[in-house]
Structure prediction request, 604 residues.
Amino acid sequence: MTSLRERTVLESWPRIRKRPEELPVRPHLLDYEATRAAFSWEAARAGLTGLPGGGLNIAFEAVHRHAHGARASKTALRWIGKDGSRRELSYAELSAEALRFASALRAHAVTEGERVFLLLGRVPELYVAMLGSLSAKCVVSPLFSAFGPEPIATRIRMGEGAVLVTTPELYRRRVEAIRAQLPSLRLVILVERGETRERPPGTIGWSEFSARGEGAFAVPPTDPEDLALLHFTSGTTGRPKGAMHVHAAVLTHYVTGLYALDLHEEDIFWCTADPGWVTGTSYGVIAPLVHGVTNLVVEAEFDAQLWYRILQDEKVTVWYTAPTAIRMMMKLGAEAAKGYDFSRLRFSASVGEPLNPEGVMFGLEAFGRPFHDNWWQTETGGIMIANFAATDVKPGSMGRPLPGIEAAIVRREADGTVRVVDEPMVEGELALKKGWPSMFRGYLGEEERYRKCFAGDWYLTGDLAKKDEEGYFWFVGRADDVIKSAGHLIGPFEVESALMEHPAVAEAAVIGKPDPIAGEVVKAFVVLRPGFRASEELRRDVLGHARKRLGPVVAPKEIDFRDGLPRTRSGKIMRRLLKARELGLPEGDLSTLESDERPTGAAP
Ligand code: ATP
Ligand code: MG
Prediction:
């Protein structure tokens, strides 16, 4: 369909055409429209096994069903430690360890529905404890291991945690002092390495705990609607919310693993996210295991050369990462990736923040494959909108809804109802038709807030977007971050993407700054690439570029150069904090703040 409307700055990037017949593996989703038309959640259920007595349990689908049969001795987890040490667990081994953990929970009188908190780095025990707790029908809440005492205490208190699995170091440094504030916590299990020093009172060692468990444990009947996971949101826009997820979510993990990540039996899959963030659980644990692939876990934090070496040496075929890491690699330039062999990499995807067109293209330049942006939230539990292996990529677009997902652009009316916007590229709130399996079932302790997320059949995401004639969605910005200037609604993403096109710019974030005439004007915070120095001349040059690309109304009026931008532990730029500081307002909840100073060290 052709249209006479003007194309946006983002749309000016050339489309990446796919030739599916040339791809090394035949993608699961070849014909987008036909796959969508034929799809039903009921039929997709055939890809899962279900518990012997009926019902659905995430851990059973992820590991136990593979533990006897063709995949029993296949590597499920390939773990690479910080010091380069390795550990491999086959499906049979991972299943047995998880069942032992589940049985040990019972032996310690932990019952169905009780909450198990995980405060661990990416160590094998994290995966065993998560799958074990789900097997025992406990509710799992993974936390970032870098959280300080206050965020830990708040979350365990909110979630009424009964069990905590952590390490002796983390316990001493972060938990011991707040233990008295956590009366619900009955059992603290410490994952010890090497010599055991004297154990703090009120804790038990992993081995001692496990010794009371047995290898044989039958996963109890699990209703698909039983609670499984409690995930706290990233806290990008305010105080983190506790999103509650049920065992039925595994069907979304299965379907999105199939269509959005295109997982095939022989894949070596690497999701770089930490399980403290929903991506690291849905796709760092569940989806790859459900598909029976080999799931790579890297304990170390981001380091470009390490990552390139891992992609090469481990022969990673499918890679799922985040814009924050992609920007860090871009900062070093595609040159830094030369000399590595990425020929096994078949598909790479990104989530968490909008992926600038520059980022998509960097994938092509550095790895020979574009990054495929996809969109979802803690609340959605799994990928909702994606660029697919076999379909054209429009750089700067987050792609199209997954089979089984209906997405629309809507406007909220004064009477509380919503109206679907049909005109192409008109912005509104991104909404999803209720009822996909991994939809959150509540915000912990915030019923009213949960209710307000819905209008009729729609779940309202709080993100603004547009949809083009071909059904591709384009992210505009979070509703909270949108700037209103001289009667225009300005989305930060497009402005930031235009700034990123400038050769000196490594990262950019924009906010609205109050202005007596325009209401708000756009102010940009820019991090420069190595080799560039902040100067008045450079400022004028970047502003000039932005004005040329965006026009005078939308382009920033002011630019501040910074060494880094504030970001969450999941790697997201915190525009609200930039704004609060700019305006001298209270900084709000900082429990998920990762770093202010440098964009390195983030845990994407
Ligand atoms: P909080 O809700 O606590 O403010 P958060 O929204 O960042 O934090 P998450 O659930 O981790 O918490 O992130 C989901 C949000 O991340 C989305 O609503 C969206 O704003 C952003 N996001 C994720 N993926 C993309 C993407 N591909 N493009 C644009 N934005 C994205
Ligand atoms: Mg959110």
Observations:
- Residues 233-238, 240-241, 351-354, 373-375, 377-378, 398, 461, 463, 475, 478, 570, 572 surround adenosine-5'-triphosphate (ligand 1) (CB under 6 Å).
